[in-house]
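Before surveying the methods themselves, let us examine one representative protein, pairing a chain with its fold in token form.
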Amino acid sequence: MVDKPLIRLSQSQLQTLEACPRKFQHIYLEQLQPPPNPLEQERLTWGSNFHLIMQQRELGLPVEPLIATDEEMERAIAALLTTAPELFQPQIQSWRSAEYPLSWESQGYLFTVIYDLFIATPATAQIIDWKTYHKPQNSQFLAQQWQTKLYLYLLAETGDYTPEQITMTYWFVRNTPPQKVTIAYTQEFHQQTQQELGDLLEDLNVYLDQYQTQGEAFIQVSPSAGFCVGCSFAARCDRLGSDQCEHQQAYEVQPSLETIAEIAI
């Protein structure tokens, strides 16, 4: 009997699946990619460079050559060091790592996360995430995103820390000065995430079975949810005319956590 290969899932895939299963099908099963948005690509490139510089700095490697030609990058890093010096000062009985990977297997799925900066002491565990877009006005939405839920959940499931010992802090480095949002984890939050993850995986199992055995497409999100507006697959899904779809791609939408660049390890 041949074992079924593990299916890898990231926070961005979970976010897409929850928002619109049909979009998940287009991107991750059919490998369809929307045309690149120049403004978005520029932001992602800047974000990738920022993550690389912070990793280099944490490793004690020189970063000056990487920021010498980018004044905005130099200002952002200097402002972060000034605003949050405690993040970069050695702490007694602490362990820290940049771009720290963590994996967890469940129900035939392999979940992977990468913490931009992980700081642990015997009593606490901090997940730090660099964000290179401006802090959202409604910061409560961060706790509802799968990046937050999965990052916290995996650490509690795989480590020796209770949920109450774990926090996750987003630093919005392009704000002036940089601003942060810290999310404290709880046992209730953990159980809620466990239930939501289980429900989402049950749905995915059904979608995959029907797709693979019957050729049935994943379900579409309701137009009333508002996700079709600006979606590159709106025309393919018969939700907008092709001319409207092209028009929607012409402007930049609010960045979501699913488009945050991470450095591959």
Q: What stands out?
A: Residues 220 and 237 are 8 Å apart (CA to CA). The chain has a mean pLDDT of 87. The chain has eight helices and six strands.
